[in-house]
């Protein structure tokens, strides 16, 4: 979905029943000052949840943003989303104000599938914007008995969030542009052991970090790479 539309077009899109569903907020909690987890309830029977898909929420008169569900239960009509609230963007302002009993419309998920179940090893890289995807894929990784590893680059205030969300097998790195340094990336353990030579790599989060990580991985023809930049400094509405 386009991130910005004229108001008349945004109004029409939000009213389109074939792609948007009415939802009500049951719970809204802050995992950290910048990480907010919201539980929505509504009819989600038409939603097809795949790892890598995102739901769209209208965040202003003219703007929409993509968010990945961290958990869903179709029978109970439950949908959880973990939001990264940062800066003063339209999405952050809107999400920060949401409270229990608020009602809004959320789109059906769509996007690019990132989970390749045929690959035994699964490696997931990202930042705060990737925590929802990490939470959604963890039960699948455990059920299918994949060896897996998470790498997260996080702001200092969020470095304890993966533990609070129940994530496992993760390594946290400070968000200091380390993943934009090709030489530093090439020296990471994942590049210096044969364990991940045929893994499925899921790369999300900051565009520049994803590009650097992907560039170093492309030297390995045996790996499978799925990547999606979620945000880039100075650019709205990825």
Task: Please describe what this structure looks like.
- The chain is of the alpha/beta class.
- The chain folds into two domains: 7-111, Elongation Factor Tu (Ef-tu), domain 3 (Beta Barrel), CATH 2.40.30.10; 122-231, Rossmann fold.
- It has helices spanning 7-14, 90-97, 131-143, 161-164, 182-186, 207-217, and strands spanning 20-32, 35-42, 53-58, 64-67, 69-73, 78-84, 103-107, 110-111, 122-126, 148-154, 170-174, 200-206, 224-231.
- The strands form three sheets. Strands 5-6-2-1-7 form a five-stranded antiparallel β-sheet.
- Strand 9, helix 3 and strand 10 form a beta-alpha-beta unit.
- The radius of gyration is 18 Å and the shape is globular.
- It starts with 6 loop residues before the first helix and ends in a 7-residue tail after the last strand.
- 34% of the residues are buried.
- The model has no long low-confidence stretch (mean pLDDT 93).
- Residues 18-116 form the FAD-binding FR-type domain.
- This is FAD-binding oxidoreductase.
- It comes from Terrimonas rubra.
Work out the helicity level.
10-25%
Q: Strand order of the main beta sheet, please?
A: 5-6-2-1-7
The CATH superfamily label of the largest domain reads Nucleotide-binding domain of ferredoxin-NADP reductase (FNR) module
CATH level-two architecture of the largest domain: 3-Layer(aba) Sandwich
Q: What structural class do you assign from the helix and strand content?
A: alpha/beta
Tell me the strand percentage band: 25-35%
In CATH, the topology of the largest domain is named: Rossmann fold
* Low-pLDDT ranges: none
Number of strands: 13
Evaluate the radius of gyration: 18 Å
How many structural domains can be distinguished in the coordinates? 2
Counting DSSP H or I runs of 4 or more residues, the number of helices is 6
Mean pLDDT: 93
Q: How far apart lie the N and C ends?
A: 10 Å
C-alpha geometry: globular
CATH uppermost class of the largest domain: Alpha Beta
Major pleated sheet? 5 strands, antiparallel
- The run of helices and strands is HEEEEEEHEEEHEHEHEHE
């Amino acid at each position: 979905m386009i991130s910005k539309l004229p108001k008349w077009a945004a109004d029409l899109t939000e009213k389109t029943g074939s792609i948007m569903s009415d939802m009500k907020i049951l719970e809204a909690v802050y995992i950290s000052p910048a990480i907010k987890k919201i539980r929505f309830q509504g009819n989600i029977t038409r939603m097809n949840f795949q790892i890598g898909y995102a739901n769209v929420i209208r965040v202003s008169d003219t703007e929409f943003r993509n968010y990945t569900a961290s958990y869903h239960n179709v029978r109970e009509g439950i949908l959880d989303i973990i939001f990264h609230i940062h800066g003063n963007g339209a999405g952050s302002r809107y999400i920060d104000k949401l409270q229990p009993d608020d009602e809004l419309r959320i789109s059906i998920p769509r996007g690019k599938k990132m989970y390749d179940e045929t690959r035994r090893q699964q490696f997931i890289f990202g930042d705060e914007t990737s925590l929802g995807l990490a939470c959604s894929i963890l039960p699948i990784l455990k059920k299918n008995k994949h060896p897996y590893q998470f790498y997260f680059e996080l702001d200092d205030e969020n470095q304890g969030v993966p533990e609070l969300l129940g994530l496992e097998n993760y390594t946290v790195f400070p968000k200091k542009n380390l993943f934009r340094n090709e030489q530093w990336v090439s020296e990471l353990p994942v590049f210096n052991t044969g364990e991940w030579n045929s893994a499925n790599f899921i790369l999300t989060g900051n565009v520049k970090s994803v590009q650097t990580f992907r560039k170093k991985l492309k030297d390995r023809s045996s790996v499978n790479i799925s990547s999606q930049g979620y945000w880039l400094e100075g650019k709205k509405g990825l």
